[in-house]
Amino acid sequence: MTATSGPRRDARVSPKPVAGRARARRSQAPRKTGVVAPAEPLSQLCDQAALFRLMSWLSPSFPVGAFAYSSGIEWAVEAGDISDAASLRDWLAAMIANGAGFCDAALAAQAHRRASQGEDEALVELCEVAAAFVPSRERQLETTAQGKAFVEIARATWPCAALDRLLALNPGAIAYPVAVGVLCAGHRIPLAATLQAFLHALISNWISAGVRLVPLGQTDGQRVLVSLETVIHDTAARAAQASLDDLGSATFRADIGSMRHESQYTRLFRS
Prior knowledge:
The protein has helices at residues 21-28, 48-57, 73-79, 85-98, 100-116, 120-132, 137-157, 161-169, 176-186, 191-213, 218-227, 229-241, 252-260. By secondary structure, the chain is mainly α. Helix 4 runs parallel beside helix 5 (100-116), helix 4 runs parallel beside helix 11 (218-227) and helix 8 (161-169) packs across helix 9 (176-186).
């Protein structure tokens, strides 16, 4: 018996006609070239200009002094809570999902939304809440000092009416996530991209602190970052839908660490 790959085709059989007049008419329409249909709504896409701005503002080279802060990680290393890549990963996953990471992302989302919609009174209220919603003196220094630096540098290099409006409404302390949210809104950068980039920059700075403090190798640091990709995506999605009523932290050990860091005997970081 001879094996065959399938039924033999009759060369005399003509191809099937196109079904339906509408389909025939569409096949005769001129084709557009150079246009690719997006896989998601345009409002969710980040074009090249927006991507360039996000990479610039949230890059380690943007001089807000983020490298000087560890958010209590320095104390956690000294106390033995963080001793290797695995324990660093677990600590940071909790901080992103249930601690400062989620809270800051939610504040950035609220700032983006209120600045986009021109809700002046609500934006002033948010500034007050963000400046007060920190568990320690050093964390407040961390968020307000970076916020001030971010606003000053952004206005000098990437000016927009939204930042000018923010300072006119609230000349006092501005928390870092609020400043980021307002600037991104002023430049019409989508909220989803804003939160992803913001959390990526935040976790990258924390990993950098952990790599220096434990110490760990650079490859270990990148492995930690890769393992937190899903946590960052999920936290960004939650933060985009969160209200001020959802703000809250369950990372008590990290909060205690930021308090005890104030009196730590030797310190490399400011928080």
